[in-house]
Design brief:
Blueprint: H1 10-28, H2 34-52, H3 57-64, H4 72-79, E1 80-85, E2 98-105, E3 108-115, H5 121-126, H6 134-149, E4 154-160, H7 167-171, H8 174-187, E5 192-201, H9 202-206, E6 213-217, E7 221-223, H10 227-234, H11 241-248, H12 252-257, E8 263-265, H13 276-295, H14 299-311
Parallel strand pairs: 3-4, 4-5, 5-6, 5-7, 6-8
Antiparallel strand pairs: 1-2, 2-3
Length: 321
């Protein structure tokens, strides 16, 4: 699988190409370069670790958007057993940008909801690049309410640039659908665990992100607007996106310092797209631990803690004139 290297990963790409060339020579000429190959692999690991230890917020944003990064269905395939996807909002239609259904995580029945972007052009178009329309959020609400009725915890996977801003979506009540999702999630009488697996953008992400425990992948981002959108407003130029990403404090470290993220999930060396199975195993363990803790609390305590958690996310001070 081609890893589709980013600009700052070029030194890694060059070293890995040398390793592949040595392997080809070794196979073609029946010569043994195992020692040299192993040495170069170790050097490559050290180089990758060094580069990824100094990433800027804009570089992390690029990783969060990586076209090979695992999406919701990649995690569902690996950690959710007996998954049964549910379709439609029973009002207008189905929205493939939102995946929702029932299954089991480590034997525990759960409801699963998540954004899905798509890999190739056809699937990206069908799933609208992971940007939900109102019917997607209403489908999510339907599954959340079903989960609450039967006492199933809810797990959401967040990965979207934002809700779709098209005319049709606005005509069908996009803002109302997002607001309603926030209301439904805030009052659910069952535990909610959310995982930011890639790009958490604006209200489109928050609409399935009101939770009791927020997990975030190491190289994911979460913000009220995209860096390009912010740059277009502040500097009148999307080319200032890297400056905007720096100012927006949208990475895991910065969000953790502000108390917005409960746990950060460490990714495989080089990012989750380098090893789907390892990334999924880490996500599964964190979800399982979070649910075990939440399910051990009385419902009234859980709802009170959720309220306090939400109210602590924003603070302001009144200053006299």
């Amino acid at each position: 699988m081609s890893l589709d290297y980013l600009e700052f990963e070029k030194p890694i790409a060059e070293l890995e190409e040398k390793i592949l060339e040595l392997q080809r020579v070794s196979d073609d000429r029946s010569m043994n370069f195992d020692g040299e190959i192993e040495t170069m692999r170790l050097k490559n690991q050290e180089l990758t670790a060094e580069i990824f230890s100094k990433l800027t917020p804009w570089q992390i944003t690029q990783i969060a958007r990586h076209p090979l990064r695992p999406y919701t269905l990649d995690y569902v395939e690996r950690i959710v057993t007996e998954f049964q996807e549910l379709h439609g909002d029973r009002m207008y239609s189905d929205d493939p940008a939102i995946v929702a259904g029932l299954g089991h995580i480590k034997g525990r029945p759960v409801a699963v909801i998540g954004h899905q972007k798509g890999r190739d052009t056809r699937e990206r178009t069908r799933r609208n690049f992971g940007m939900p329309r109102p019917e997607g959020y209403r489908k999510a609400q339907r599954v959340m309410q079903l989960a609450s009725r039967f006492g199933l915890p809810v797990v959401t996977f967040i990965d979207t640039a934002g809700a779709y801003p098209g005319v049709g979506a606005e005509e069908r009540g996009q803002s109302e659908a997002i607001a309603r999702s926030l209301e439904v999630m805030a009052s659910l009488e069952t535990p909610v665990v959310s995982v930011v697996i890639g790009e958490g953008g604006s209200g489109g992400a928050l609409a399935i992100g009101v939770c009791d425990h927020l997990l975030m992948m190491e190289y994911a981002v979460y913000s009220v607007i995209s860096p390009e959108g912010c740059a277009s407003i502040l500097w009148k130029s999307a080319e200032k996106a890297s400056d905007a990403a720096e100012a927006m404090k949208m990475t895991t470290g910065e969000l953790s310092e502000q108390g917005l993220v409960d746990e950060v999930i460490k990714e495989p060396l080089g990012g989750a797209h380098r090893n789907y199975d390892e990334a999924a195993a880490a996500v599964e363990d964190h979800i399982d631990r979070a649910l075990s803790k939440l399910l051990g609390s009385p419902k009234e305590t859980m709802l009170e803690n959720r309220y306090r958690r939400l109210m602590a996310l924003g603070r302001y001070e009144l200053k006299s004139a």
